[in-house]
TrEMBL record:
Protein's pathway: Cofactor biosynthesis; (R)-pantothenate biosynthesis; (R)-pantothenate from (R)-pantoate and beta-alanine: step 1/1
PANTHER family: CYTIDYLATE KINASE/PANTOATE-BETA-ALANINE LIGASE, PANTOATE--BETA-ALANINE LIGASE
Catalytic class of the enzyme: ligase
Pfam families: Pantoate_ligase
Family to which this protein belongs: Belongs to the pantothenate synthetase family.
Name of the protein in its database record: Pantoate--beta-alanine ligase
Organism of origin: Actinomortierella ambigua
Keywords: ATP-binding, Ligase, Nucleotide-binding, Pantothenate biosynthesis
EC number: 6.3.2.1
HAMAP family on file: PanC
GO MF annotations in UniProt: ATP binding; pantoate-beta-alanine ligase activity
Residues making up the signal peptide according to the UniProt record: none
GO BP terms in the entry: pantothenate biosynthetic process
Coiled-coil regions, chain positions: none
Lineage: Eukaryota, Fungi, Fungi incertae sedis, Mucoromycota, Mortierellomycotina
Length: 318
């Protein structure tokens, strides 16, 4: 696939790898009074991403998808180099929706004019940090992560200037961080979070699922099942105490960890964390108040692949 920077033949999606060229296209949308919906991605697209594109198309005239593997959200020991880069199939998937008007494929050198190194102590330039929401849950094992996300999303918003932006609920903390950032920085953008797309057995779709072997894939639903059991302990049994709510979830995970060990499948399953937080403040809850909107979430390792998932309590959208 060549990366055309000019509008290609009818039916093709223009791909912009220069920010100036994209801005010229964006000005045309404005002249034609078209609203723009934006779906930021790191590529390796799956049905979950395409559901965001379709949701955007229902609410906006033109949908822009960015594909950018953002170095600033990876730590030196993480999988930046191994992160899947699958532009040709991503392009075909977007074309198949018939809903994508333009693809933004920016270069690292344009996105980070001051340069970018993964070693935080050596970083130079401007970063966006959403304090109070970035250092719990996913921010504990990945303290650099939300600063990288908030920074790149701000840059992308500045380029794309969307009326609306679409994020997957699977990354619940990311939705809360971005929503607060939009609010704090007075960005004229309506933030939308779209429900998680799941495989038939409940596994949340993720670009990292492709790393699972068939044996790993069989047990990978453990987190979704664990979170479902915790929700059931609230809605079915009326439990309000954190310990009681999370107990059945820990039970399911311990059972699977033991089964995988006993069957000597050649990989381990390990719980990273389970969390129950208030939707607005992301503070851990010891007690769930009546109708309090909350997020039940967690992360597990299946082999070396880290899977995350969440379920909302008393809330429809993040
Ligand atoms: O969710 C993602 O894929 C990324 O965190 C995002 C929002 C595209 C920023 O790099």
């Amino acid at each position: 696939m060549s990366h055309s920077t000019s509008s290609a033949a009818a039916g093709d999606i223009p791909v912009f790898d220069r920010i100036d060229d994209f801005r010229a296209w964006r000005r045309e949308q404005l002249k034609q009074n078209k609203t723009v919906g934006f779906v930021p991605t790191m590529g390796a697209l799956h049905e979950g991403h395409l559901s965001l594109v379709k949701a955007a198309k229902e609410e906006c005239d033109s949908v822009v998808v960015s594909i950018f593997v953002n170095p600033a959200q990876f730590a030196p020991h993480e999988d930046l180099d191994q992160y899947p880069r699958t532009f040709d199939t991503d392009y075909q998937s977007l074309a198949s929706t018939g809903a994508c008007a333009a693809i933004l494929l920016p270069r690292v050198s344009e996105m980070y004019p001051s340069g970018i190194t993964l070693d935080r102590s050596q970083q130079r330039g401007t970063f966006v940090d959403v304090l109070g929401l970035s250092h719990q849950m996913e921010g504990i094992p990945r303290p650099h992560f939300f600063r990288g996300v908030a920074t790149v999303v701000t840059k992308l918003f500045n380029i794309v200037q969307p009326e609306r932006a679409y994020f997957g609920q699977k990354d619940a903390q990311q939705c809360v961080v971005v929503r607060n950032m939009v609010n704090d920085l007075l960005l004229p953008i309506r933030m939308r979070s779209i429900p998680t797309c799941r495989e038939a057995d409940g596994l949340a779709m993720s670009s990292r699922n492709r790393y699972l072997t068939p044996e790993m894939r069989k047990v990978a639903t453990l987190l979704y099942r664990a979170l479902g059991a915790a929700r059931q302990s609230v809605v079915g049994s009326g439990n309000k105490e954190r310990k009681q709510i999370l107990e059945p979830a820990y039970g399911i995970i311990e059972e699977v960890v033991q089964q995988v060990k006993d069957q000597q499948l050649g990989f381990d399953v390990r719980l990273d964390y389970l969390s129950l937080v208030d939707v607005a403040t992301l503070t851990e809850l010891e007690q769930l108040e009546e109708s309090q909107p909350a997020i039940l979430s967690g992360a597990v390792y299946v082999g070396t692949t880290r899977l995350i998932d969440n379920i909302l309590l008393n809330a429809e959208e993040l």
